[in-house]
Automatic annotation (TrEMBL):
Keywords: 2Fe-2S, Heme, Iron, Iron-sulfur, Metal-binding, NAD, NADP, Oxygen transport, Transport. PANTHER family: NADH OXIDOREDUCTASE HCR, PROTEIN RFBI. Residues 136-236 form the FAD-binding FR-type domain. The keyword rRNA-binding does not apply. Belongs to the globin family. GO terms for molecular function: 2 iron, 2 sulfur cluster binding; heme binding; nitric oxide dioxygenase NAD(P)H activity; oxygen binding; oxygen carrier activity. It comes from Streptomyces rubellomurinus (strain ATCC 31215). This is nitric oxide dioxygenase. The keyword Heme applies. Pfam families: FAD_binding_6, Globin, NAD_binding_1. Its EC number is 1.14.12.17. It is an enzyme of class 1 (oxidoreductase). Its cofactor is FAD; heme b.
Length: 372
């Protein structure tokens, strides 16, 4: 691991060039894998390369590494990735690293990287093969409802073509027919339903090909592709721990799903507090529904927070993490956070200072390793 860290320190400042060289080698010497990637590689950018580097950096924690790489291995089935594709990727990775690690590259460093890549690929291949025995690489999903909640936010309900298993708090990747092989992650916005329908909240973002297509172009009857469910932002309701939820913007989707799941468990003597933040009141598009749930279930409290406007009746003002901090301490709570990465990171810091142990804080910063 010392050799891995030392070579990473040299490569990361020039990662853009190393990435370009990596893909050039891969597509030149193994053109058969080109069809696995999007036509426009500026969307893919450095995702695969940086995921490999991040996985190598995490090799010291084999339990966490196995969990994360298992998800990646299962998820890569949706691209059509086969066991035979892993060795070419590994060879090109080593060649790109050798070129850009400079004097930090020697025979021992190469051996270290080959060992780590063998570990990474083995975990991913085993997870993919296990998943192949019980589930398809992807699901087809027909859009059955498309609701615009704000100018840039749509709530999309999809009917999968076969049974789809997931937990409240998880997410999956979606591919639209307009951008083949371009996948983006979205959280499930409801707990699993008897009718099997899946609901997602999507915000159109600048230069967001998939999000803009889903918000402004998708309509009932369109067919999407769905990858397998992933993510560890789930809650064991049987334990009955009090729950604290921080949701920013469309991050309310998995929080709403967790609240619905808590309702199904009947509260069990616990309390659930939801802090729901946005810049403007119009962006709190799920507030009425959450307040209706709170009116029926006294163990549920919903606290709207606005950061971009003046005081309003029944609404807290300020940045969401700092507002939550003012209500602390939160010792004894289990916490989940969902929303913009900057908000989640600040929120984690606030909760740690407010007495919540790190092992009781859950979030999914999806874009850190896999995709955005």
């Amino acid at each position: 691991m010392e050799l891995i860290r030392a070579s990473l320190a040299v490569v990361e400042p020039v990662a853009d060039r190393a990435t370009a060289h990596f893909y050039a080698l891969l597509f030149l010497h193994h053109p058969e894998v080109r069809s696995l990637f999007p036509a426009a590689m500026d969307v893919q950018r450095d995702r695969l390369f940086r995921a490999l580097l991040a996985a190598a950096r995490g090799a010291e924690d084999p339990v966490a590494l196995r969990t994360r790489l298992g998800e990646l291995g299962r998820g890569h089935r949706r691209y059509g990735t086969l066991t035979g594709h892993y060795p070419p990727v590994g060879e090109c990775l080593v060649q790109a690293l050798a070129r850009y690690a400079g004097a930090r590259w020697d025979a021992d460093t190469e051996l270290a990287w080959r060992r780590v890549y063998r570990l990474i690929s083995t975990i991913m291949i085993e997870a993919a093969e296990e998943a192949a025995r019980t589930s398809p690489p992807w699901w087809q999903g027909e859009v059955v409802r498309h609701e615009r909640r704000t100018r840039d936010v749509a709530v999309i309900t999809v009917r999968p073509d076969q049974a789809y298993r997931y937990r409240a708090g998880q997410y999956c990747s979606l591919e639209t027919p307009w951008w083949p092989r371009v996948w983006r992650h979205y959280s499930f916005a409801t707990a699993p339903r008897p009718d099997g329908l899946l609901t997602f909240h999507v915000k159109a973002v600048p230069a967001g090909w998939v999000s803009n297509a889903l918000v402004h172009r998708a309509a009932p009857g369109d067919v999407l592709r769905l990858g397998p469910a992933a993510g560890a932002m789930t809650v064991d309701h049987a334990l009955g721990a009090d729950l604290l939820c921080l949701a920013g913007g469309t991050g309310i989707a998995p929080i709403r799903a967790l609240v619905e799941e808590a309702v199904e468990y009947g509260g069990r003597g616990r309390s659930v507090e939801v802090f729901y933040g946005a810049r403007g009141a119009a962006e709190l598009y799920e507030l009425d529904g959450l307040r209706e749930l709170a009116a029926r279930h006294p163990w549920l409290a919903v606290r709207p927070v606005l950061s971009g406007s003046g005081p309003a009746e029944g609404v807290l003002t300020g940045e969401l993490p700092e507002v939550v901090g003012r209500f602390g301490p939160w010792t004894g709570r289990e916490a989940v956070l969902s929303g913009p990465p900057a908000m989640v990171r600040r929120g984690v810091g606030v909760l740690l200072r407010a007495g919540v142990p790190a092992e009781r804080i859950r979030h999914d910063l999806v874009g850190e390793l896999a995709a955005g």
